[in-house]
Each structure stands twice: as C-alpha cells, then as structure tokens.
C-alpha cells in the first residue's frame, strides 16, 4: 500500500459549466490548451478550444458543426500540424485544422502516432471495425466485418483502440462490443488474432502504450467491472492472462486512461461521477509454462490508490496532459468541463 502521507490526491482546479452535452476532451499536444467536443441541444456539434491560464479556463475559439461530435484524437497528426480527428453521430470521420476551426475539414469520409502510416480506426452500430489512412479518403485500408451469420443483426461495436505499433509493419486493433465480446485484429495479417467475452458490455478499451510491443490493455465494462490483460504472452488456447476488478460503488466503468509518464498507473471514470486512480503490479513471473510446455502469461494485481467524487453524473471522458504529469481534463454528463491535477504521482 502507498504510505498515507505520500498518497496522491485528485484535486479539481477549474470548472466550466456549458449548455451542451460533453462527449470528449483532449489536450492539444505541447500546449496548455485543450479541446471540448460534444452536442448542442439542437443536435449540432460542439467544438471549443480552451487555454488554462493559472487556474482559469479561458475560451479561445468555438464553432458549431452540422452533427454532434462523439470523439476526437490527435493520434494521426504530428506535433507540427496538431490536427484534430473527430467522429460524429452522422457516421463521418473528419480532420480539422485548429487554426481554421470554422473552415471545412481538411479530410472527410463516411466511416459508420508512432510507427506506421497515419491511421485512424472507427467502429459503429453495424459491428464493423474500419481502419483509415488519412492520405486516402475513398475507402478504408482495412475492414473487419461481422461473420456472415451475424450480419442480419450485428452486435454494436462500442470501442476501439490501436496498439502494438512498435515498427512499420506491426499494428493491432482492439475492439469491444455491447455483448461483452473483445476482439483483437492484426493489421499485418489482416486477420482476427484473439477473442474473448467478458460477460458485460464493453464501454472502452485501451492499451497502456500504443507505440510499444504490446504490454497490457484494459477493458472497461458495465456492471462496475474492468479487466487488465497481460499482452506479453498469448497462450495457444487460453489467450491472454487477466485480472478483474470491481468498483465498490457499483457504477458503470466508462473508461480507463493510462498516465503518459507511467504506464502502470491509470484513471478510471465511473458512472457515479467519481474518478478512481489505480496502479498495476506485475507478478514475480510474467510467463510460465503449462503442462504441455507451452508459454502462458500470468496476471498481476491491481491496487486502488485514491478516489474522488467530482460530479453527480458519469465521467464520460478524460485526458491526461502529455506534457505536465498529473494535469488532466475531463467531461461529465452534468454539462461541465473540469480541469484537475493528481498530486504526488512521482511517488508511485
């Protein structure tokens, strides 16, 4: 356990109420600015840029888009451009130049960084996972569709994430579905690599790092559960070893976000408006052999470090600052954006 005097604390340092629903918040890399994305009451898209000035949140720019915006990422853009990719409720993938937020997107397609191509991955109610190269607008470079038998009534795909992108050839996509299915697709072979079912709808999936050889990943679920899978060893039959944790409050786990400066620390956003800070501890041996001599992974353990209730509504989005350890921005369904800081993370 962490010593009481050295326990990190979750502090709110800024709060901004909005007359819109917030779906995502993202720090602009190498800056004190962040983006807020969501939906106005008339179902148009909210896009705002704020700057943190001391403890004050100053609105720099805002624009309204045709369709409500569900999510955003800077993952397919370099530091020089810092272009924002968004997915909206009309099923479109767009990339925006933030210097000209009111202008049309520089890239747009109907969709329903590290090594490798500048790619984005999307999912939707059609159950299809699609990978897009931002240099190629007309069609996805890869598409993983439901099986023939399931196409009449496909399961909703609720979450996707890139990982294992440690050289120019390797890259995987992790996908989570409403029935608890979790699937891993290998983009090098263009095939499904692994699948399991966690028995509850999957709200979010995330690798602890996207640009390294797979280390571990988290799966956030309904019914207050989340799972951590050790991805270094895949058993031929049992797949990846995992450990499961359940929130004491019984709230839905909306997402998990790994600290950029320490991949073994992650924040959990819960349906009761609370944030939970956890640390993963590796076992003494991460790999053993089964009775047949096949390598098999061993899961570690999860420690709750601290928790804080910040809202009466779910924490639906969260983003750590890549530049300032502990600085974070989050949104919740109480229509408020919060800037926070987690102290003493260097002591973990």
Automatic annotation (TrEMBL):
WD repeats lie at residues 120-142. Pfam families: WD40. Keywords: Repeat, WD repeat. PROSITE patterns: WD_REPEATS_2 (PS50082). It comes from the Eukaryota. This is Wd repeat-containing protein 92.
């Amino acid at each position: 356990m962490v010593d009481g005097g050295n326990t990190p604390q979750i502090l709110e340092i800024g709060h901004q109420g909005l007359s819109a629903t917030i779906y995502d918040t993202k720090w602009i890399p190498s800056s004190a600015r962040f983006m807020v994305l969501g939906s106005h009451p008339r179902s148009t898209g909210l896009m705002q840029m704020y700057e943190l000035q001391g403890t004050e949140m100053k609105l720099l720019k805002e624009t309204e888009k045709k369709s409500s915006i569900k999510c955003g990422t800077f993952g397919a853009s370099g530091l020089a451009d810092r272009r924002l990719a968004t997915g909206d409720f009309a099923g479109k993938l767009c990339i925006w130049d933030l210097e000209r937020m009111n202008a049309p997107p520089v890239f747009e397609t109907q969709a329903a960084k590290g090594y490798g191509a500048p790619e984005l991955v999307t999912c939707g109610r059609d159950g299809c996972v699609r990978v897009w190269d931002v240099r190629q607008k007309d069609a996805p470079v890869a598409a993983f569709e439901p099986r023939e038998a399931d196409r009449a009534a496909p399961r909703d795909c609720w979450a996707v994430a890139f990982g294992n992108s440690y050289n120019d050839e390797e890259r995987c996509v992790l996908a989570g579905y409403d029935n608890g299915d979790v699937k891993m697709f290998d983009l090098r072979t263009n095939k499904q690599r692994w699948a399991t079912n966690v028995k509850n709808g999957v709200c979010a999936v995330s690798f602890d790092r996207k640009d390294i050889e797979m280390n571990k990943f988290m799966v956030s679920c309904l019914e207050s559960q989340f799972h951590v899978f050790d991805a270094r060893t895949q058993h031929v039959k049992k797949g990846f070893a995992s450990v499961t944790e359940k929130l004491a409050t019984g709230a839905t786990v909306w997402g998990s976000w790994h600290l950029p400066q320490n991949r073994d620390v992650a924040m959990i956003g819960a349906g009761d408006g609370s944030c939970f800070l956890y640390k993963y501890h590796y076992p003494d041996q991460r790999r053993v052999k089964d009775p047949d001599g096949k390598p098999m992974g061993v899961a570690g353990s999860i420690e709750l470090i601290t928790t804080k209730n910040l809202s009466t509504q779910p924490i639906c989005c969260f983003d750590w600052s890549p530049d300032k350890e502990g600085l974070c921005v989050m949104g919740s369904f109480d229509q408020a954006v919060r800037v926070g800081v987690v102290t003493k993370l260097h002591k973990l």
